[in-house]
């Protein structure tokens, strides 16, 4: 009875500001709990991850015949490094939980169409981010070997653990974010913000931006690492353009069929997102 009375008083299920704050606190607590659990797992896995990340340093010592090692420059350096690695792992492995909590907080204010596109974007963006992070994982050894090779062979290479870890994690995050951009383009196309032909026409600018991004993320003289990053990004870009063009064709066919019912020539409408509004206005007058 109480539930039915509540629905009568608030048929649209609107939430007050206080209810929104309570809901936000709930989502934040669940996300924080997931990260804490991930932090425990990450603290256990951090020695193995750290061994893999610093393996290029040991390879340098063998290949270049120099003294090369990780250096902890303060008493808490080793502990801070392990906690930082554990936190990085925790954020990655708990991302399904905190991404869902963000989605659950925003979803009530979205339309059915926006919810569908949002779910599709998340389901695509997370694998692409992980793929980008893995690509960065593959090129890190080449980057470290190349940059340290500029030092004279008689000089030792003592690297700060904190700075080396910052360099590695920032590189992984930057490349992972770069791999998500094609999914963002597709979502904008599905929302009617940009058309597939516009994405495809900008391919020269896109390739230039991708090459610049790969050049910044990797040393400019390391062409192999630069190619390993740029090639999949270019493929993903053209894949996103192809998906957007196919979606536009389906939308255009549906719009043409709707216009034909009212005897309106499709040539009277434009392809811009604003054209949909003008088309609806004509349909309203016809009806």
List the helices and strands and how they pair.
Layout: H1 2-9, H2 17-53, H3 55-63, E1 68-71, H4 77-93, H5 95-106, H6 112-148, E2 157-160, H7 161-190, H8 196-201, H9 203-217, H10 223-261, H11 273-286
Parallel strand pairs: 1-2
Helix pairs in contact: 2-4, 2-5, 3-6, 4-7, 5-6, 6-7, 7-10, 9-10
Number of strands: 2
- The general outline is flat
Mean pLDDT: 78
Strand arrangement, largest sheet?
1-2
| Run of helices and strands | HHHEHHHEHHHHH
**Relative helix content:** over 70%
Could you tell me how far the N terminus lies from the C terminus, measured between alpha carbons in angstroms? 44 Å
| Helix/strand class | mainly alpha
**Ranges with pLDDT <50 over ≥5 residues?**
271-287
Question: How many separate structural domains?
Answer: 1
Global Rg: 26 Å
SS element count, helices: 11
Largest β sheet strand count, sense and barrel closure? 2 strands, parallel
Q: How large is the share of residues in beta strands?
A: under 5%
